[in-house]
Specification:
alpha+beta, 10 helices, rod-shaped
């Protein structure tokens, strides 16, 4: 290796800048010393190695920012040293400059293939060396910046993961609480049997289905779908559940308590009107809801319901026929002046009434085709011999088969009431 050009000026580092470490690798002691002295004058922290093997030992114990290595050395060449360094360095990176008299394109390509970043031909001029070192410093600075950003990103992702896990735990608890609103999935009352289906598409959902008894001979059935999905919808459905609680009649918005504490109820259309006022005036939220609310006299089978933008309830007759009830109606919580119409119906022993949300009828197949009312009727007829609980389970299986997945895109809920009549249990 030839001598480095003379006239090496002293170059000061910027205030506060950390000195970079440089490893000089050369089997010529004289050439190592010349380079080391120049690098030290320029403000670098310099170490030396007399061979590629010795350099690998040093690199195993610490990381050097820049490595200057002669190509032609006894034993391991600079090219072989570079290859081995890149193979064993892991995430650590050093800017590698090969010092060589080789200038053929093929040899330069070999050096780049081995992992070298730059080349200097001998004899080395100090201004050219300094320029190459500056280029290395810029690359090292960018690498350190990327590593720091990656560290901060990793730290942020760890924090977000912690937040997500905490939120997930909270949502699991919220789902458990929401399930309590529909605790009685199977129940019998004098004159009929109630079965409830509820499958939220996420941790929590905006659907609400339920029932409660007004007195010994009357029962209320309801199905509600709050607009949107997720926590906001679930919170509103929780509030509505409290307003339809049979366990707390004093807070039930559909009940009228007489002076003798006898339970009476508003007409279904009046209940819809009262809920419209609750959402618009009391809650003042940006959400609305659809609802079917039905009252059935268990002695006579006579019923009255209101349909407010909700899917049509179905009466499945004992002879295999069915009736679609309602005219559609306006959703609740959209318009101050909304009016709601009551609809009368009658059930005979052996009839079933099914209240459901649109997550059932709008469940798509893989091609996007919705199940529809006719598809739902076909499923219900296919399993008509089943009791209500198993029938609803079969409905879920058939919906999953129609969808091609058990991950329903919307909440799936419904209520099936079997009218037994006064002669039943």
């Amino acid at each position: 290796m030839q001598n480095l050009s003379t006239e090496m000026p002293v170059i000061a580092l910027p205030d506060g800048a950390a000195a970079l470490s440089v490893l000089v690798v050369d089997d010529s002691k004289a050439q190592r010393k010349m380079l080391s002295m120049s690098l030290a004058r320029w403000g670098y922290l310099v170490e030396e190695a007399a061979s590629g093997e010795e350099a690998l030992v040093l690199c195993a114990g610490r990381r050097f920012d820049i490595i200057l290595s002669d190509w032609m050395m006894e034993g391991m060449s600079g090219l072989e040293f570079c290859q081995e360094l890149r193979r064993t360095a892991g995430d650590s990176y050093s800017y590698f400059i090969l010092l060589t008299s080789k200038s053929e394109k093929g040899e330069v390509a070999d050096g780049l293939e081995a992992g070298a970043d730059d080349f200097l031909t001998k004899p080395v001029a100090y201004d050219e060396l300094r320029a190459r070192l500056r280029a290395g410093e810029r690359l090292i600075g960018m690498q350190r910046e990327v590593l720091e950003k990656n560290r901060l990103l990793g730290h942020t992702l760890d924090e977000l993961q912690g937040v997500y896990q905490a939120l997930d735990r909270d949502l699991v608890q919220a789902r458990a609480v929401q399930q309590t609103f529909m605790r009685e999935r199977r129940a019998s009352v004098p004159g009929g049997d109630v079965s409830i289906l509820f499958r939220s598409s996420g941790h929590v959902g905006g659907d609400l289905v339920g029932w409660f008894r007004i007195n010994t001979h009357s029962v209320i059935l309801y199905s509600i779908d709050v607009s949107g999905h997720g926590v906001a919808s679930a919170m509103l459905s929780a509030r509505l559940a409290g307003l339809l609680s049979g366990a707390a009649p004093e807070r039930n918005a559909s009940l009228v308590l007489s002076s003798h504490a006898r339970r009476e109820t508003w007409a279904p259309e009046e209940v819809a009107k009262r809920f419209n006022r609750v959402i618009l005036d009391d809650l003042q939220v940006d959400q609305y809801m659809t609802m079917v609310y039905a009252q059935i006299d268990l002695l006579t089978g006579k019923g009255r319901l209101v349909q407010a933008g909700h899917p049509h309830p179905l009466i499945l007759r004992g002879d295999g026929s069915y009736d679609r009830l309602g005219q559609g109606g306006l959703p609740i919580g959209l318009l101050d002046e909304a009016t709601f119409e009551g609809i009368d119906f009658r059930m005979a022993p052996g009839d079933r009434i099914f209240l459901m949300t649109d997550g059932i009828t709008e469940c798509p197949d893989p091609d996007g085709e919705e199940l529809g009312v006719e598809g739902l009727i076909a499923i219900l007829r296919r399993h008509a011999e089943l009791k209500s609980g198993p029938l609803l389970e079969a409905l879920v299986w058939d919906l999953a088969a129609h969808l091609g997945s058990e991950d329903f895109p919307d909440d799936v809920s419904g209520l099936l009431f079997d009218y037994v009549g006064t002669g039943g249990s």
